[in-house]
Specification:
alpha/beta, globular, seven-stranded mixed β-sheet, binds zinc ion
């Protein structure tokens, strides 16, 4: 559940973080000078679009509107509120350039929604934010940096003045997002390492991650992320299993609970699950049978629970 938007400290009063959970990414509202429209970084999942609207409305100043949405990347948990926010405020949408053609054609294959069994309401991009470019909101300038790894086209945003980094899914307090290109058979662990190195050079004093609470211990987070990356590199199978389990958990977060046969059919029908099952040498008779093993692991970890033939998102 979202927490009320609160200023992080007095000197960051221009910045509001909506900490959302896992189905929806966090959103960051940037206030400009009095009377100027606000800018929102990322917009959550389509299933939470009404919640996102309510959070934005509550955080806007009297008479203020939302002028712009900047997406760090276009996974369904980061841009699912775009269409609803455009309807409500007429906000302009700014996206990383690597996804521009796929958005223009709304190609759900290239946007990976079909691959990963996810959904997102269609939207149109108004402008691109390229790595190396920056944008200004009020007295603060946010520099966009390429942050490939979790997503090839992802951006992270850094305000040098306050040392604030909006890190998307490139760095969390404990790890980073699934390295999706790796699930798709594309080497990307080196890109993750390079992105972590880049983050270290920025010298951020506060990180607002795509999921989880903002944090100050950036060296500690980098240390944990690198340890995780080392473990994945030494055993890519572990990462692949982790990725498919994360997707299954994410699917359950959206649907709440599902009869076991329906959820197992999701493993059969979701292309990335089938691809990974094949790449790992068919570790079970079918993607569904493999999914049942993975669900067993999730249940052992307490991440899901099976009661009366229904899988619950515990
Ligand atoms: Zn993501």
């Amino acid at each position: 559940m979202p927490i009320p938007a609160a200023p992080l400290t007095a000197h960051l009063a221009h910045l509001r973080v909506f900490e959302r959970g896992w189905l929806s990414s966090n959103n960051v509202l940037l206030h400009g000078d009095d009377g100027d429209p606000a800018t929102l970084i990322d917009s959550g999942h389509v299933a939470h679009a009404e919640q996102t609207l309510a959070l934005v409305r509550r955080a806007l100043r009297p008479g203020q509107t939302l002028g712009c949405i900047v997406n760090t990347h276009l996974h369904s948990d980061h841009c699912g509120g775009n269409a609803a926010l455009v309807r409500a405020f007429g906000a302009r949408i700014v996206i990383p350039p690597g996804d521009a053609d796929a958005v223009a054609q709304w190609d759900e294959d290239r946007l990976t929604y079909r691959l990963t069994g996810q959904r997102c309401e269609r939207f149109t991009a108004d402008a691109l934010l390229r790595p190396g470019e920056s944008f200004t909101v009020g007295a603060r300038t946010w520099q966009a940096h390429a942050a490939p790894g979790h997503d090839t086209h992802s951006l992270i945003l850094f305000d040098d003045h306050d040392g604030v980094l909006i890190s998307a899914d490139a760095l969390w307090e404990n790890g980073f997002g699934v390295v999706f290109p790796e699930l798709d058979g594309v080497d990307a662990f080196d890109a993750v390492a390079a992105t972590l190195d880049l983050i270290e050079t920025l010298g951020a004093r506060l990180v607002i991650p795509g999921h989880g609470a903002p944090f100050n211990d950036v060296p500690g987070a980098l240390r944990r992320a690198r340890a995780r990356l080392t473990a994945f590199r030494s055993d890519p199978t572990r990462h692949a299993r982790h990725g498919i389990k994360a997707l299954a958990k994410y699917h359950l977060l959206e649907v709440g609970s599902q009869p076991l046969p329906t959820l197992l059919a999701w493993f059969d029908a979701t292309p990335i699950a089938r691809q990974v099952w094949q790449r790992l040498g068919r570790p079970a008779a079918s993607p569904a049978a493999w999914g049942e093993l993975l669900l067993g692991e999730l249940a052992a970890q307490g991440a899901v629970a099976l009661r009366a033939g229904v899988v619950h998102n515990d």
